[in-house]
Amino acid sequence: MSTVRLLVGTKKGAFVLTSDGKREKWDVSGPHFAGWEMYHLKGSPVDPNRIYASQTSGWFGQIIQRSDDGGKTWCQPGTPPGETKGPDGMPKGESNKFVYDTSKETGAPLTTHQFYDGSQHPWEFKRVWHLEPSLSDPDTVYAGVEDAALFRSTNGGKTWEELSGLRGHGSGPNWQPGAGGMCLHTILLDPKNAGRIFVAISAAGAFRSNDGGKSWKPINKGLKSQYIPNPEAEVGHCVHRIAQPKSQPDLLYMQKHWDVLRSFDAGDTWTEVSGNLPTDFGFVIDVHAHEPETIYVVPLEPATRTCPGSAPAVWRSEDGGGSWKKLAQGLPKKESYFTVLRDAMDIDDLQSPALFFGTTTGQLWIGRDGGEKWECLFDALPPIHCVKVAVV
User: CB-based burial of residue 351 (10 Å sphere; 0-12 exposed, 13-18 middle, 19+ buried)?
Assistant: First the structure.
């Protein structure tokens, strides 16, 4: 029988949960890296026991962790034994591995970007928001960071090189942080075209490369954002997440700061599909494992980042956003004031897939039968940043 593995990143450490294909009883390992913020964890599709994790702290810096045995043990790749802590015994960050490339002037300066007040501000590395393992090589992994940039490692996370063509394609100096900073939070690798990569940046927009990250194109036509000087500008849109069905990689879905959108042409053009949703604001959007037009979102009130009426619900569309159905059976009916963050929902690929989402108040939920019935697996975890599921 299949083993289902859940990777849960929280504000106070990481948890690894495993179950059989029935997904009824779960073994829990953790917290790993207790007390640290875990922004993202993800396993390699080539070697499921190879897991990469982003461990970060405002005091100690950024550390990349890697497991080669499904999360039982971890190492800091590229850090010699005995050097994982400083002289005072505190954890030693590895932030110096993420160094912005300022040597290539590819049409735009790579030294500064626009700041909140409109002035130019130096690029400053803060943390890794997203790790995306290669679809073909367990030693190759991509990292999306803040300030927004894309890095790649080809040696299992030991060293990192920036794919500076993204910042240097022409609009990089015009990128400006939103209220939550300026982060590259989504990386999609095309399963049918090895050279095609999609990324999303808050608050710059979505971008596509067709040559493995050397050159990039903004893909924001059709996006409208009323809070920027030019609502239909080429860049400057606060994209919260994009999703892609494996079977149809030209089909993309987007949850923007406002609006849910769809593209049939790999992002060249976008159309709003918010339809009858109670609010078009949210962070997550995901696609059914076997049905490319079945998508899920969690609408939130823009002002409070909580569910409308304090009653949480996942909404599902089975026609690519043409119409939406509320899925709330088993979820609290009132007085639940949580947020579901952009990487805190995922779907497994069993024959009858289950959905999982985590909340900023520490609940981990499973939705069976395509989200028709919800059950709380754990209700006292730290605030959840990330939920990733794999069948191994």
Answer: exposed
